[in-house]
Input
Amino acid sequence: MRNKIAAVVATAAFVAGGSLMTATSASATVDPPGGTWDHTWTTTDSAKGGTVYVEEHGDVVSVCDSAADGLSARADVAVQQSSGAYVVRYQLVASGGLGSCATARASDGGTHDLPENVSIGVGVYLGPNYQHTSNHYYLNDH
Output
């Protein structure tokens, strides 16, 4: 129960803290192309309907829809502020159904270029109502 409360609080902090931008791109496979992923996390549902992949070098973040459940896989990417709060920089939505992915990278510029030596929060969830959310954090030091 405590984990669920922490997930809800962290998600609320993501949503309340900043504006959302959406980026989408489709892929034929659920596992996004690319090299090695520093972090891979899934949603909390039994089907693991959403998976997020993070490669710190180049700030590459991909979210993929990995179950035919009618819900789009989504990810919020947030940056920790000096106050300790996390502010959402952008949101990714894999809106093409099973096998679709959405990817952002530093080379896209703007909010996708994440600051170095700062804690990054990633929430991966299903649908617009934050179903099956799992929140994760890493130090962006590459």
Notes: The mean pLDDT is 82. The chain is about 10% helix and 40% strand. The first strand starts at residue 22 and ends at 23. Helices lie at 2-17.
